[in-house]
Write a structure and sequence with these properties.
Structural class: alpha/beta
Helix content: 40-55%
Order of helices and strands: EEEHHHHEHEHEHEHHEHEHEH
Distance between the termini: 21 Å
CATH architecture of the largest domain: 3-Layer(aba) Sandwich
Strand content: 5-15%
Largest sheet: 4 strands, parallel
Shape: globular
Number of strands: 10
CATH topology of the largest domain: Rossmann fold
Radius of gyration: 20 Å
CATH class of the largest domain: Alpha Beta
Length: 344
């Protein structure tokens, strides 16, 4: 059995094994990122870094950077800053919501399973290089690190860009461990079990279950579809929805699919922020909304859904708008992650 330092620097525990071979393994929980503060300049910097990524925009790198830094970030920084202020009322005493929930998840996973766990972001802090250093500091004899992306469905703007960035960082310097990536787990029984058991209490007395996912440019969607199911974003999210309904015995006709955070017309639709107000007019006045693509609460769940979509729906004549929280540090999600890692 190996021995590693705990988060306080003093605690030492025996490392449990994921695969039973005697390897000392660590886990890196990966997400997209968040501004460190709600200060408009900080938010602009974060937006510029994110939208400069050609894998996210689908445009050449030089054009992505030019557009992000000179047009998009300056034009949207203050507006997005105000959104973050609404979902982060305790700024100064707590970290950003995304980081808060990820740290809680990492701590619980570490405590329950006895393996070192760190978190990292594709854009912003904490960064991957720092997370690697911390894992090596705490566990010098680490044999393997498994990257677990907190996006269940493949997309080049999340999965692929994270893989590329992590690979570039990993191979620049020698490390004591090898690196592995958890594959998309959109249909893994443990993920579906976690989603359904968590969501079930929120699905009482409603007309429709609303599934919502981050929108993508149609060109990216088509490129993934042509490569096969393992790259097909729409297939994967619809399979999640199908398995969710099957598990809870929900008639698919009693569900609806929306997309959010689009940046143009040629993106996956219908759009949550323009079309959800149509539902009360059709007689669906009580809905529950779930975002399976976001296992951790963030700006899109806490603002786009719980504040903005709620307002639009209720102003259009809705009577009940229930938001299913993200899995966050839920016990069933911790167990699901462990089961998913067992096949990695």
């Amino acid at each position: 059995m190996g021995r590693c330092k705990g988060r306080d620097g003093d605690l030492v525990w025996n490392v449990e094994l994921i695969n039973g071979r005697g390897d000392m393994r660590g886990i890196l929980l990966m997400n997209v990122g968040t501004p460190a503060t709600t200060e408009p300049g900080e938010v602009k910097e974060f937006i510029a870094a994110m939208l400069s990524d050609p894998l996210l925009t689908g445009k050449p790198e030089w054009w992505s950077k030019l557009l992000a830094k000179n047009i998009i970030a300056p034009g949207s920084g203050s507006r997005v800053s105000e959104k973050y202020k609404l979902i982060w009322p305790n700024e100064g005493t707590t970290p950003p919501p995304l980081i808060y929930h990820m740290r809680k998840l990492a701590e619980t996973l570490e405590e329950r399973k006895g393996v070192p766990v760190e978190i990292a972001m594709r854009y912003g802090k904490p960064d991957v290089a720092s997370a690697f250093r911390e894992l090596e500091r705490r566990c010098p004899l680490l044999h393997e690190v498994i990257v677990f992306p907190l996006y269940p469905h493949y997309a080049q703007s999340t999965t692929q860009t994270s893989k590329d960035m992590i690979g570039n960082i990993f191979y620049k310097h020698p490390h004591s461990f090898r690196l592995k990536f958890a594959e998309p787990y959109y249909n893994h029984p443990a993920f579906i079990q976690a989603l359904t058991s968590h969501a079930k209490p929120y699905l009482e007395d409603i007309d429709k279950v609303i599934f919502t996912y981050h929108s993508l440019p149609l060109a990216q969607v088509e490129a993934g579809w042509k490569k096969g199911k393992e790259y097909d974003y729409v297939y994967q999210l619809k399979e999640t929805n199908r398995l969710f309904c099957e598990k809870l015995d929900i008639d698919p006709h009693d569900t609806f699919l929306f997309y959010s955070s689009q940046r143009g017309k040629n993106w996956l639709n219908p759009f949550l922020d323009t079309d959800i107000g149509d539902l009360p007019k059709l007689g669906w006045k009580k809905v529950a909304v779930i975002a399976p693509g976001f296992p951790v609460d963030n700006l899109e769940t806490l603002y786009d859904i719980d504040i903005e979509a709620r307002r639009l729906f209720m102003e259009a004549g809705g009577e009940k708008f229930t938001v299913v929280p993200a899995l966050n540090g839920n016990d069933v999600w911790v167990e699901a992650i462990w089961k998913i890692l067992e096949r990695t």
